[in-house]
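#data-curation
PF: Archiving a pair of folding outputs for the training set. Convention for this channel: one message per protein, sequence first, C-alpha coordinates after, nothing in between. First:
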Amino acid sequence: MLFLDYQPDLNETDIEVYKAIISEVNAVASMSIRELAEKSHTSTASVLRFCKKFRCTGFSEFKIYLSAYLESLKEEKEVKTLDFESELLNFLARTQDKFFEDKFDEAVHLLMEKELIIFIGVGSSNVVAEYGSLYFSSLFNMAIRIEDPSNYPINYLSTELAKKMCIVALSVSGETTEIIQYLNHLNLSESSVIGITSSSNSTLSKLADISITYNISLEKINEADITTQIPAMYIIEKLAKTVRNRMETQ
Protein backbone atom coordinates (compact mmCIF):
# COMPACT_ATOMS: atom_id res chain seq x y z
CA MET A 1 0.00 0.00 0.00
CA LEU A 2 1.54 3.28 -1.13
CA PHE A 3 5.28 3.01 -0.40
CA LEU A 4 4.91 -0.04 1.86
CA ASP A 5 5.44 -3.55 0.52
CA TYR A 6 2.65 -4.93 2.71
CA GLN A 7 -0.90 -4.09 3.79
CA PRO A 8 -0.95 -2.34 7.22
CA ASP A 9 -3.79 -2.97 9.65
CA LEU A 10 -6.04 0.06 9.21
CA ASN A 11 -9.15 0.87 11.22
CA GLU A 12 -12.09 2.96 9.99
CA THR A 13 -10.44 6.25 10.98
CA ASP A 14 -7.23 5.26 9.21
CA ILE A 15 -9.22 4.45 6.08
CA GLU A 16 -10.70 7.96 6.10
CA VAL A 17 -7.20 9.45 6.29
CA TYR A 18 -6.05 7.14 3.50
CA LYS A 19 -8.98 8.13 1.26
CA ALA A 20 -8.20 11.81 1.80
CA ILE A 21 -4.56 11.23 0.83
CA ILE A 22 -5.44 9.26 -2.30
CA SER A 23 -8.01 11.81 -3.45
CA GLU A 24 -5.34 14.52 -3.63
CA VAL A 25 -2.14 12.52 -3.52
CA ASN A 26 -0.07 15.07 -5.42
CA ALA A 27 -1.11 17.88 -3.07
CA VAL A 28 -0.34 16.09 0.20
CA ALA A 29 3.31 17.21 0.18
CA SER A 30 2.20 20.84 0.57
CA MET A 31 -0.45 20.14 3.22
CA SER A 32 -0.06 20.66 6.94
CA ILE A 33 -1.11 17.93 9.33
CA ARG A 34 -4.07 20.07 10.37
CA GLU A 35 -5.21 20.49 6.76
CA LEU A 36 -5.15 16.73 6.19
CA ALA A 37 -7.03 16.16 9.44
CA GLU A 38 -9.74 18.60 8.35
CA LYS A 39 -9.96 17.09 4.89
CA SER A 40 -10.32 13.57 6.30
CA HIS A 41 -12.74 14.73 9.03
CA THR A 42 -10.43 13.27 11.68
CA SER A 43 -7.91 14.78 14.10
CA THR A 44 -4.18 15.52 14.02
CA ALA A 45 -3.71 12.68 16.51
CA SER A 46 -5.46 10.31 14.10
CA VAL A 47 -3.18 11.42 11.26
CA LEU A 48 -0.10 10.80 13.43
CA ARG A 49 -1.32 7.30 14.33
CA PHE A 50 -1.89 6.67 10.62
CA CYS A 51 1.67 7.79 9.81
CA LYS A 52 3.14 5.46 12.44
CA LYS A 53 1.38 2.52 10.78
CA PHE A 54 3.37 3.46 7.68
CA ARG A 55 6.66 3.28 9.63
CA CYS A 56 6.96 7.05 9.93
CA THR A 57 7.63 9.01 13.13
CA GLY A 58 5.44 11.87 11.99
CA PHE A 59 3.59 13.54 9.14
CA SER A 60 6.70 15.28 7.79
CA GLU A 61 8.52 11.97 7.37
CA PHE A 62 5.41 10.44 5.78
CA LYS A 63 5.35 13.24 3.18
CA ILE A 64 9.00 12.60 2.32
CA TYR A 65 8.38 8.89 1.72
CA LEU A 66 5.19 9.61 -0.22
CA SER A 67 6.94 12.15 -2.48
CA ALA A 68 9.75 9.68 -3.20
CA TYR A 69 7.19 6.98 -4.01
CA LEU A 70 5.29 9.22 -6.43
CA GLU A 71 8.53 10.22 -8.14
CA SER A 72 9.50 6.57 -8.61
CA LEU A 73 6.14 5.88 -10.27
CA LYS A 74 6.68 8.81 -12.61
CA GLU A 75 10.17 7.61 -13.57
CA GLU A 76 8.89 4.05 -14.16
CA LYS A 77 6.17 5.36 -16.48
CA GLU A 78 8.71 7.46 -18.42
CA VAL A 79 11.04 4.47 -18.83
CA LYS A 80 8.21 2.29 -20.18
CA THR A 81 7.25 5.01 -22.66
CA LEU A 82 10.84 5.36 -23.82
CA ASP A 83 11.19 1.57 -24.17
CA PHE A 84 8.04 1.43 -26.30
CA GLU A 85 9.20 4.23 -28.57
CA SER A 86 12.71 2.77 -28.80
CA GLU A 87 11.32 -0.61 -29.86
CA LEU A 88 9.27 0.97 -32.63
CA LEU A 89 12.26 2.99 -33.85
CA ASN A 90 14.43 -0.14 -33.78
CA PHE A 91 11.79 -2.01 -35.78
CA LEU A 92 11.67 0.73 -38.41
CA ALA A 93 15.46 0.63 -38.62
CA ARG A 94 15.37 -3.15 -39.13
CA THR A 95 13.02 -2.75 -42.08
CA GLN A 96 16.03 -1.36 -43.96
CA ASP A 97 18.08 -4.53 -43.37
CA LYS A 98 18.75 -6.69 -46.41
CA PHE A 99 17.28 -9.79 -44.74
CA PHE A 100 13.98 -8.00 -44.04
CA GLU A 101 13.91 -6.46 -47.51
CA ASP A 102 14.53 -9.85 -49.14
CA LYS A 103 11.69 -11.50 -47.19
CA PHE A 104 9.43 -8.56 -47.93
CA ASP A 105 10.24 -8.73 -51.63
CA GLU A 106 9.48 -12.47 -51.70
CA ALA A 107 6.09 -11.78 -50.12
CA VAL A 108 5.32 -9.06 -52.67
CA HIS A 109 6.10 -11.38 -55.60
CA LEU A 110 3.95 -14.11 -54.07
CA LEU A 111 0.98 -11.80 -53.51
CA MET A 112 1.15 -10.51 -57.08
CA GLU A 113 0.52 -14.05 -58.33
CA LYS A 114 -2.63 -14.61 -56.24
CA GLU A 115 -6.28 -13.79 -56.89
CA LEU A 116 -7.61 -14.21 -53.36
CA ILE A 117 -5.95 -13.18 -50.08
CA ILE A 118 -7.26 -14.63 -46.82
CA PHE A 119 -6.34 -12.99 -43.51
CA ILE A 120 -6.53 -14.90 -40.23
CA GLY A 121 -5.80 -13.89 -36.65
CA VAL A 122 -7.08 -14.32 -33.10
CA GLY A 123 -7.64 -11.66 -30.44
CA SER A 124 -6.09 -8.31 -31.32
CA SER A 125 -4.53 -10.01 -34.37
CA ASN A 126 -8.07 -10.72 -35.58
CA VAL A 127 -8.75 -6.98 -35.58
CA VAL A 128 -5.57 -6.43 -37.58
CA ALA A 129 -6.65 -9.22 -39.94
CA GLU A 130 -9.94 -7.41 -40.60
CA TYR A 131 -8.05 -4.18 -41.24
CA GLY A 132 -5.68 -6.02 -43.57
CA SER A 133 -8.49 -7.51 -45.63
CA LEU A 134 -10.13 -4.10 -46.06
CA TYR A 135 -6.83 -2.43 -46.90
CA PHE A 136 -5.81 -5.07 -49.47
CA SER A 137 -9.26 -5.07 -51.08
CA SER A 138 -9.10 -1.29 -51.44
CA LEU A 139 -5.71 -1.30 -53.12
CA PHE A 140 -5.24 -4.23 -55.44
CA ASN A 141 -7.10 -7.51 -54.98
CA MET A 142 -9.97 -9.31 -53.31
CA ALA A 143 -9.19 -10.08 -49.69
CA ILE A 144 -11.31 -11.53 -46.88
CA ARG A 145 -10.88 -12.27 -43.20
CA ILE A 146 -11.74 -15.57 -41.54
CA GLU A 147 -13.34 -14.32 -38.33
CA ASP A 148 -13.09 -17.61 -36.44
CA PRO A 149 -10.29 -19.79 -37.87
CA SER A 150 -11.12 -22.72 -35.56
CA ASN A 151 -14.52 -23.13 -37.26
CA TYR A 152 -13.28 -22.80 -40.84
CA PRO A 153 -10.83 -25.61 -41.54
CA ILE A 154 -9.94 -26.12 -45.18
CA ASN A 155 -10.62 -29.80 -45.78
CA TYR A 156 -12.12 -29.71 -49.25
CA LEU A 157 -10.16 -27.26 -51.35
CA SER A 158 -9.55 -27.92 -55.01
CA THR A 159 -5.97 -27.70 -56.21
CA GLU A 160 -6.96 -25.12 -58.78
CA LEU A 161 -8.51 -22.81 -56.17
CA ALA A 162 -5.74 -23.40 -53.64
CA LYS A 163 -3.09 -22.27 -56.11
CA LYS A 164 -4.88 -18.94 -56.50
CA MET A 165 -4.98 -18.29 -52.75
CA CYS A 166 -2.56 -16.81 -50.27
CA ILE A 167 -3.20 -16.91 -46.54
CA VAL A 168 -1.75 -14.12 -44.41
CA ALA A 169 -1.53 -15.47 -40.86
CA LEU A 170 -1.14 -12.99 -38.01
CA SER A 171 0.09 -13.95 -34.55
CA VAL A 172 2.28 -11.89 -32.24
CA SER A 173 3.78 -14.92 -30.50
CA GLY A 174 3.58 -17.17 -33.54
CA GLU A 175 2.14 -19.89 -31.31
CA THR A 176 -1.60 -19.12 -31.33
CA THR A 177 -3.29 -22.53 -31.18
CA GLU A 178 -6.20 -21.71 -33.51
CA ILE A 179 -3.86 -20.32 -36.16
CA ILE A 180 -1.48 -23.27 -36.01
CA GLN A 181 -4.35 -25.77 -36.24
CA TYR A 182 -5.84 -23.89 -39.18
CA LEU A 183 -2.55 -23.90 -41.07
CA ASN A 184 -2.04 -27.59 -40.41
CA HIS A 185 -5.11 -28.23 -42.58
CA LEU A 186 -3.14 -26.80 -45.49
CA ASN A 187 -0.45 -29.45 -45.43
CA LEU A 188 -1.87 -31.24 -48.45
CA SER A 189 -3.09 -28.17 -50.33
CA GLU A 190 -1.36 -25.86 -52.75
CA SER A 191 -2.13 -22.66 -50.84
CA SER A 192 0.68 -20.30 -49.94
CA VAL A 193 1.13 -18.87 -46.44
CA ILE A 194 2.70 -15.60 -45.36
CA GLY A 195 3.27 -15.38 -41.62
CA ILE A 196 3.50 -12.02 -39.85
CA THR A 197 4.77 -12.52 -36.31
CA SER A 198 7.20 -11.20 -33.75
CA SER A 199 9.21 -14.42 -33.41
CA SER A 200 11.42 -15.91 -36.11
CA ASN A 201 11.67 -19.16 -34.09
CA SER A 202 7.93 -19.65 -33.71
CA THR A 203 5.78 -22.45 -35.10
CA LEU A 204 4.07 -19.98 -37.43
CA SER A 205 7.43 -18.96 -38.91
CA LYS A 206 8.21 -22.61 -39.60
CA LEU A 207 4.82 -23.39 -41.16
CA ALA A 208 4.71 -20.31 -43.39
CA ASP A 209 6.19 -20.26 -46.87
CA ILE A 210 7.41 -16.74 -46.13
CA SER A 211 7.73 -15.35 -42.61
CA ILE A 212 8.06 -11.63 -41.98
CA THR A 213 9.11 -11.04 -38.37
CA TYR A 214 9.27 -7.78 -36.45
CA ASN A 215 10.94 -8.82 -33.15
CA ILE A 216 8.97 -6.76 -30.64
CA SER A 217 8.99 -7.68 -26.93
CA LEU A 218 5.77 -9.36 -25.82
CA GLU A 219 3.84 -7.36 -23.24
CA LYS A 220 1.11 -8.67 -20.93
CA ILE A 221 -1.03 -7.34 -18.10
CA ASN A 222 -2.25 -10.30 -16.06
CA GLU A 223 -3.22 -12.71 -18.86
CA ALA A 224 -4.10 -10.06 -21.45
CA ASP A 225 -1.70 -9.63 -24.37
CA ILE A 226 -1.21 -5.90 -24.96
CA THR A 227 1.78 -6.15 -27.30
CA THR A 228 1.69 -3.37 -29.87
CA GLN A 229 0.29 -4.25 -33.30
CA ILE A 230 1.86 -1.23 -35.01
CA PRO A 231 4.62 -3.30 -36.72
CA ALA A 232 2.07 -5.78 -38.12
CA MET A 233 -0.07 -2.95 -39.48
CA TYR A 234 3.00 -1.28 -40.97
CA ILE A 235 3.95 -4.51 -42.77
CA ILE A 236 0.41 -5.00 -44.09
CA GLU A 237 0.14 -1.46 -45.41
CA LYS A 238 3.57 -1.53 -47.01
CA LEU A 239 2.88 -4.90 -48.65
CA ALA A 240 -0.40 -3.69 -50.15
CA LYS A 241 1.05 -0.41 -51.42
CA THR A 242 4.14 -2.08 -52.88
CA VAL A 243 2.09 -4.72 -54.70
CA ARG A 244 -0.23 -2.02 -56.07
CA ASN A 245 2.71 0.10 -57.31
CA ARG A 246 4.44 -2.82 -59.01
CA MET A 247 1.28 -4.03 -60.70
CA GLU A 248 0.68 -0.55 -62.10
CA THR A 249 4.17 -0.40 -63.60
CA GLN A 250 3.94 -3.80 -65.29
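PF: Second:
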Amino acid sequence: MINSPRVCIQVQSVYIEAQSSPDDERYVFAYTVTIRNLGRAPVQLLGRYWLITNGHGRETEVQGEGVVGVQPHIEPGEEYQYTSGAVIETPLGTMQGHYEMIDEQGIAFTIDIPVFRLAVPTLIH
Protein backbone atom coordinates (compact mmCIF):
# COMPACT_ATOMS: atom_id res chain seq x y z
CA MET A 1 0.00 0.00 0.00
CA ILE A 2 1.23 3.50 -0.77
CA ASN A 3 -0.14 6.80 0.51
CA SER A 4 -0.09 10.32 -0.84
CA PRO A 5 -1.56 13.39 0.83
CA ARG A 6 -4.81 12.69 -1.02
CA VAL A 7 -5.05 9.14 -2.32
CA CYS A 8 -4.24 5.63 -1.08
CA ILE A 9 -3.77 2.72 -3.53
CA GLN A 10 -4.04 -0.95 -2.57
CA VAL A 11 -3.67 -3.88 -5.01
CA GLN A 12 -4.31 -7.61 -4.68
CA SER A 13 -3.57 -10.13 -7.43
CA VAL A 14 -4.73 -13.69 -8.02
CA TYR A 15 -3.72 -16.40 -10.49
CA ILE A 16 -6.53 -17.54 -12.81
CA GLU A 17 -5.66 -21.19 -13.38
CA ALA A 18 -8.77 -21.94 -15.48
CA GLN A 19 -7.74 -19.38 -18.13
CA SER A 20 -4.02 -20.14 -18.04
CA SER A 21 -2.08 -22.58 -20.19
CA PRO A 22 1.43 -23.14 -18.84
CA ASP A 23 2.30 -25.43 -21.79
CA ASP A 24 1.67 -22.44 -24.08
CA GLU A 25 3.50 -20.01 -21.74
CA ARG A 26 0.23 -18.25 -20.90
CA TYR A 27 -0.31 -17.25 -17.28
CA VAL A 28 -3.44 -15.22 -16.55
CA PHE A 29 -3.78 -13.03 -13.47
CA ALA A 30 -6.55 -10.82 -12.15
CA TYR A 31 -5.79 -7.83 -9.97
CA THR A 32 -8.14 -5.75 -7.86
CA VAL A 33 -7.25 -2.13 -7.18
CA THR A 34 -8.81 -0.06 -4.41
CA ILE A 35 -8.34 3.72 -4.72
CA ARG A 36 -9.27 5.68 -1.58
CA ASN A 37 -9.66 9.44 -1.50
CA LEU A 38 -8.22 10.54 1.83
CA GLY A 39 -8.49 14.24 1.03
CA ARG A 40 -11.18 16.82 1.64
CA ALA A 41 -12.07 17.38 -2.01
CA PRO A 42 -13.16 15.14 -4.89
CA VAL A 43 -10.62 13.74 -7.33
CA GLN A 44 -10.95 12.16 -10.76
CA LEU A 45 -8.83 9.44 -12.32
CA LEU A 46 -8.03 10.36 -15.92
CA GLY A 47 -5.44 7.84 -17.05
CA ARG A 48 -3.20 4.95 -16.15
CA TYR A 49 0.27 3.65 -16.90
CA TRP A 50 1.42 0.09 -16.17
CA LEU A 51 4.84 -1.51 -16.44
CA ILE A 52 4.40 -5.30 -16.55
CA THR A 53 7.57 -7.38 -16.14
CA ASN A 54 7.64 -11.14 -16.66
CA GLY A 55 10.01 -13.58 -14.96
CA HIS A 56 12.58 -13.21 -17.76
CA GLY A 57 12.73 -9.43 -17.28
CA ARG A 58 10.73 -8.68 -20.45
CA GLU A 59 8.81 -5.44 -19.94
CA THR A 60 5.50 -4.40 -21.44
CA GLU A 61 4.09 -0.90 -21.06
CA VAL A 62 0.35 -0.24 -21.07
CA GLN A 63 -1.21 3.20 -20.90
CA GLY A 64 -4.57 4.69 -21.62
CA GLU A 65 -7.53 6.71 -20.46
CA GLY A 66 -9.32 5.76 -17.28
CA VAL A 67 -9.60 2.24 -15.91
CA VAL A 68 -11.93 -0.49 -17.21
CA GLY A 69 -13.58 2.05 -19.51
CA VAL A 70 -14.35 4.77 -16.96
CA GLN A 71 -12.73 7.88 -15.49
CA PRO A 72 -14.16 7.69 -11.99
CA HIS A 73 -14.84 10.63 -9.70
CA ILE A 74 -14.00 9.75 -6.11
CA GLU A 75 -15.55 11.84 -3.35
CA PRO A 76 -13.73 12.62 -0.08
CA GLY A 77 -13.69 9.60 2.20
CA GLU A 78 -14.93 7.34 -0.61
CA GLU A 79 -13.19 4.61 -2.60
CA TYR A 80 -13.34 3.19 -6.09
CA GLN A 81 -12.53 -0.46 -6.71
CA TYR A 82 -12.10 -2.33 -9.97
CA THR A 83 -10.73 -5.63 -11.22
CA SER A 84 -8.76 -6.14 -14.41
CA GLY A 85 -6.29 -8.66 -15.74
CA ALA A 86 -2.85 -9.30 -17.16
CA VAL A 87 -1.37 -12.14 -19.18
CA ILE A 88 2.35 -12.93 -19.00
CA GLU A 89 4.56 -15.70 -20.40
CA THR A 90 6.06 -16.83 -17.08
CA PRO A 91 4.61 -18.05 -13.76
CA LEU A 92 6.13 -15.10 -11.93
CA GLY A 93 6.17 -11.39 -12.73
CA THR A 94 5.44 -7.92 -11.39
CA MET A 95 3.33 -4.89 -12.17
CA GLN A 96 3.74 -1.27 -11.16
CA GLY A 97 2.74 2.09 -12.53
CA HIS A 98 0.83 5.27 -11.81
CA TYR A 99 -2.53 6.99 -12.17
CA GLU A 100 -2.96 10.44 -13.65
CA MET A 101 -5.55 12.36 -11.66
CA ILE A 102 -6.99 15.83 -11.21
CA ASP A 103 -8.44 17.57 -8.20
CA GLU A 104 -11.55 19.77 -8.13
CA GLN A 105 -9.53 22.82 -9.23
CA GLY A 106 -8.35 20.92 -12.30
CA ILE A 107 -4.81 20.57 -10.97
CA ALA A 108 -3.18 17.41 -12.29
CA PHE A 109 -1.22 15.05 -10.07
CA THR A 110 0.23 11.56 -10.34
CA ILE A 111 -0.23 8.74 -7.84
CA ASP A 112 2.26 5.87 -7.90
CA ILE A 113 0.97 2.31 -7.91
CA PRO A 114 3.27 0.15 -5.78
CA VAL A 115 5.02 -2.87 -7.26
CA PHE A 116 2.97 -6.01 -6.78
CA ARG A 117 3.64 -9.62 -7.63
CA LEU A 118 1.96 -11.82 -10.21
CA ALA A 119 2.71 -15.36 -9.06
CA VAL A 120 1.39 -18.87 -9.44
CA PRO A 121 0.65 -19.81 -5.79
CA THR A 122 2.78 -22.97 -5.79
CA LEU A 123 5.90 -20.89 -6.56
CA ILE A 124 5.78 -18.72 -3.46
CA HIS A 125 5.81 -20.25 0.02
